Amino acid sequence: MERREFLRASCTAGLAALTTGAAYGQQKLPGESEMAYRQRMARLQAFRGPLPGESEAAYRERMSNLRATAAEAMAAEYFELRRYEIETEAQKAGFDAFAKEAAIPALNRAGVEPVGAFYPWEGLSPIYVLFRHKNLPSFVTLTQRLAEDEKFLQAGADFLNAPASNPAYKRMQVQFMQAFEGMPHIETPIKAPGRVFQLRIYESPSEKTGLKKIEMFNIGEIDIFRKTGLNPVFFGQTLAGDKMPNLTYMLVFDNMEERQANWKRFVNDPEWKQLSSIPEYADKEILCGITNLYLKPADYSQI
User: Fold this and answer.
1) Residues 66 and 84 occupy one common structural domain
2) Which domain holds residue 286?
3) If exposure means fewest CB atoms within 10 Å of the residue's CB, which of 66, 95, 122, 191 is most exposed?
């Protein structure tokens, strides 16, 4: 199936779903998160007419509120992924105390939530911390806002004031991303204690080919991920960081066995085979490197 035909089929299916009535409008779709469901409901509600007995003024006000809700639901978020290199168990213990007692509460007060903290599946380092920013100013002003938070400075004093002779960590790297149009918000689809996260980075040989891979996700691959149980947490286009150009995404599973089974479902899915067979989306044309990491959440992680 050519790309144009695939897009036409996708649009036709979407329009058919919208016109099937209450079943689609009232029920969650398979694999749809609560947040995605609410966002979809807001968009659908914006196109409905006046309610029985509703005045014209009340209808206009409701439509204005719904349009604002729909616009907010569709606004792409920004993600900040920090990578902390640590060398000792003492540094890990200090980092955990800082993150749990000082950093995450302060970040939440600053409107940055949820905050995820993850260890490597095996080994000590690095520790990954994921921030969700609702807009660009949130990222730009965060350092200054934290510097003015007295509770944060007091609770995190041991970590923040660690001397050069005994540093809190070896080094920190920051990756800044913008959410994909096809998944504009972070999601937390699985909260099981033993959950496993998969962090993947797709490098592209040029910015043009990187955008082509993002297009592939937006027009169908994200939906296929959901259908086959790959449970996305976020998809981000890297705006600043290492290994650019790249896109980065995170998945979550109940356990490693589910991860293995659902990836098998994905690669055997007929829609995926159709989409990946389009020449302009071939991996050899648009990808030049893949990083694949398995992570486990800290007990204080909000993701």
Assistant:
1) no
2) 78-297
3) 122
Query: 255 and 106, same structural domain?
Result: yes
Q: What is the pLDDT of residues 110-158, one digit of tens each?
A: 999 999 999 999 999 999 999 999 999 999 999 999 999 999 999 999 9
The answer on 165 and 92 residing in a single domain is yes
Q: Residue 134 gets which letter from DSSP?
A: S
Q: Going along the chain, which residue ranges are E strands?
A: 78-85, 115-120, 127-133, 171-179, 196-203, 232-240, 246-253, 289-297
Give the separation between CA 303 and CA 301, rounded to whole angstroms: 5
DSSP code for 99:
I
Same domain, 143 and 238: yes
Same domain, residue pair 69 and 163: no
The domain boundary, picked from 74, 98, 132, lies at: 74
Per-position DSSP letters for 212-281, written without gaps between them: HHHHHIIIIIHHHHHHTT--EEEEEEEEESSSSSEEEEEEEESSHHHHHHHHHHHHT-HHHHHHHTSGGG
Cβ proximity of 132 and 188 under 8 Å: no
User: Which portions of the chain are predicted below pLDDT 70?
Assistant: 1-49, 65-74
Domain boundary among the residues 9, 43, 74 is at 74
Question: What count of residues does the chain have?
Answer: 303
Q: Using CA atoms, how far apart are residues 80 and 116, in angstroms rounded to an integer?
A: 11
**pLDDT value at residue 7:** 53
- Model pLDDT, residue 60: 77
Contact 129, 115 (CB under 8 A): yes
Whether residues 159 and 293 share a domain: the answer is yes
Residues 142 and 30 in one domain: no
48 and 168 together in one domain = no
C-alpha distance across the termini of the chain, in Å: 37
- What predicted TM-score, i.e. pTM, was given to this entire model? 0.78
